[in-house]
Each structure stands twice: as structure tokens, then as C-alpha cells.
Amino acid sequence: MLEYPQFDSVMVSIGPLELRWYGMMYIFGIVSGWLLGRYRATKPWNKMTPKLMDDFITWAILGVVLGGRIGYVLFYNASFYFSNPLKIFAVWEGGMSFHGGMLGVLVAIWLFGRANNMTFMELGDFVSPLVPPGLFFGRIGNFINAELWGRYTDLPWAMPFPGAGGLPRHPSQLYEAALEGLVLFAVVWWYSSKPRPKGCVGALFLLGYGCFRFLVEFAREPDRHLGFIALNWMSMGQLLCMPMILFGIGWIWWSYRNDV
């Protein structure tokens, strides 16, 4: 069993102002996506330009923050927030949903594409390879915050997390950082390195994320207030990943079959 590193969640403190590691992880994710997007925008088969990428990043930030928060409220704790509506705005207390953030970014892609003569599929294919680094940093932030830890295990790399009852648990945040962040980035970036059928880069991202998240959820402790959602073993995260997996498989199959 390993010892959990006792991180100080505050990165820098100046008087009453605090910069927390979790917030910094969001900044790292946004900056990495922006820089990768500017590089990707130089490729000749993209309609995106570095200047447009500078504009789009603002739309993406709004999509991530608003969608992530609204998604957490609706998917994970609707009854609490409907009873305490002012708590919806207390983002400093935590509570962001990847699936909500993804829907927020999809709305941003649709709106930005309409305003800049790009189809939803074109812009979605452009943006998809830029997302995994942000997922990597986000999961590292979860690990530093000692949240979203895994289920009990006796594996040698298990560790007891603060507030988790002292039991050795899977460091599931690190599993997700490796799979959803590093591995997914390598696969989608490689696949997007040359022209592909329309929508397939985005579909591969959805398929890859859905599969990796579905798998890691077997090692991740379900949310206490939700437990298992279906079949006495399926978590909310797995339930939300199923449409991603099915759409990813279906779109890739249809696209190659019809040579779009």
C-alpha cells in the first residue's frame, strides 16, 4: 500500500487571495488546448486559423464552465440544488461534470461554426484532439484535491485517501488521467494528423473517452448520494458514457461505409 501525498490545495496565497491547484489545472488545460489549436490551425485541410482559434477559446471556456456546472447540477445532485438554488452559483465548493462541459462545448462549436462559416462536424473534428490534455490536468486536480477516489482494493499501489475511511483504494483519478488524458490524446491526435471522413475524429474521441471512462468506473467509488443507477452495478458516469460509445461506433461505421 502506498501513502497518499499530503498536498496543500493552495498553490499560492497572497493575503486573502488564494490560487488553488485545482483552478490552476483548469488554466493548464485551457492553455494547452489553445496552443495545440493554434498549431493545428496551420494545417492546410482546416478552415480554422490561429486568429479564429484565439476567438474560439473564449467560447470554449464559457461552454466548459457553464455546461460543466449545469451538468453537475442536473445529472448528479438535482434535488439538492433545486432545494437550494443559490448553491448553484457556489462553484468554489466544487461540482463540475465532464458530460455537462462536453455538451456546453458542443453548443459553443455549433454557435461559433455558424458565425464563421464552418459546419458543426468540421469544427468538432478540429476541436476533439485538443480536449484530452485538459482532461489529464483535470484528473490530476482531482487527485490533488483527494476527491473522486476509487473503490477498496488490496493492490500494492492502493492508497488511503483523506475522508475515505482509511481504507486502501484505487487511485482512479490517475487511471483516468492516463487513459482519458495521455492515451486518448495520442490516439486522437495521430488519427487526426491527416484528413478523415467527416465527423470521424470527433466520433473517435467520443468512443475513446466513453470506453475509457466506462472501464475506469469499475474501479471508481460511485457518488455517495447516487450509488449505482442501473442493474445494481452501473454508475451515473457509465450511464452517461453509453450514448457516446454507441454514437462513436455508429458514426465511424456509417462514415466509412458511405465514404463521406
From TrEMBL:
Its EC number is 2.5.1.145. Pathway: Protein modification; lipoprotein biosynthesis (diacylglyceryl transfer). Keywords: Cell membrane, Membrane, Transferase, Transmembrane, Transmembrane helix. It is an enzyme of class 2 (transferase). It is a multi-pass membrane protein. Its main location: membrane. The chain crosses the membrane at residues 20-36, 56-76, 96-113, 198-216, 228-254. A 1,2-diacyl-sn-glycero-3-phospho-(1'-sn-glycerol) binds at R139. It comes from the Bacteria. One of its GO terms (molecular function) is transferase activity. It is found in: Cell membrane. NCBIfam families: lgt. Catalyzes the transfer of the diacylglyceryl group from phosphatidylglycerol to the sulfhydryl group of the N-terminal cysteine of a prolipoprotein, the first step in the formation of mature lipoproteins. PANTHER family: PHOSPHATIDYLGLYCEROL--PROLIPOPROTEIN DIACYLGLYCERYL TRANSFERASE (PTHR30589:SF0), PROLIPOPROTEIN DIACYLGLYCERYL TRANSFERASE (PTHR30589). Belongs to the Lgt family. This is Phosphatidylglycerol--prolipoprotein diacylglyceryl transferase. It comes from Pseudodesulfovibrio nedwellii. The lineage of its organism: Bacteria, Pseudomonadati, Thermodesulfobacteriota, Desulfovibrionia, Desulfovibrionales.
